[in-house]
Specification:
about 150 residues, alpha/beta, Nucleotidyltransferase, domain 5, 2 domains, 7 helices, about 25% strand, elongated
Length: about 150
């Protein structure tokens, strides 16, 4: 999976992709206090919101985060000096990721999502899908002991 995240003065945006194909999008307006955050802080917020939103896709998998904020590329190597940085790092613990720099001009889709003037909502095109129930039903029907019982019940 790849997350591409971006922030503007008024909004944050992100795209979750797999094998180069977008799966879902995030666009969210910032409240007044967050609008006054530094660019670094807003870009970090975009990453954290994306990881929080898509954690079901990301837990247990290696993924890449792409951002146009160069200093975030060294997030895990930086000396943590503020309580905010400590909180941000804590929220990413347990995830297996790497951060790459990608210039803003190469992030057209996510730039558009983060530039929406109105307060936006999270948009999901797909949701995690599990076919576990179908596998259980299929295994039960094929079982030499449970299959006949199931057929008699129906």
């Amino acid at each position: 999976f790849v997350i591409v995240a971006d922030a503007s003065g008024t909004s944050i945006g992100a795209v979750l992709s797999q094998k180069g194909r977008p799966l879902t999008f995030l666009s969210k307006g910032l409240n007044e206090s967050k609008k006054s955050w530094s660019t670094y802080g807003k870009e970090m917020l975009a990453i954290l919101e994306a990881v929080r939103c898509w954690r079901t896709y990301l837990l247990g998998r290696r993924f890449t985060i792409r951002t146009d904020q160069r200093s975030l590329r060294y997030l895990l190597e930086q000396h943590i000096v503020t309580p905010e940085q400590q909180k941000w790092i804590t929220k990413l613990l347990g995830f297996d990721y790497r951060i790459e720099y990608k210039s803003g001009t190469e992030n057209k889709a996510v730039n558009a999502l983060s530039r929406r003037a109105e307060v936006a909502i999270t948009l999901a095109i797909t949701a995690p899908y599990s076919n576990l129930w179908a596998k259980i039903v299929q295994a039960t029907e094929g079982d030499p002991h449970l299959g006949p019982i199931l057929r008699n019940i129906r």
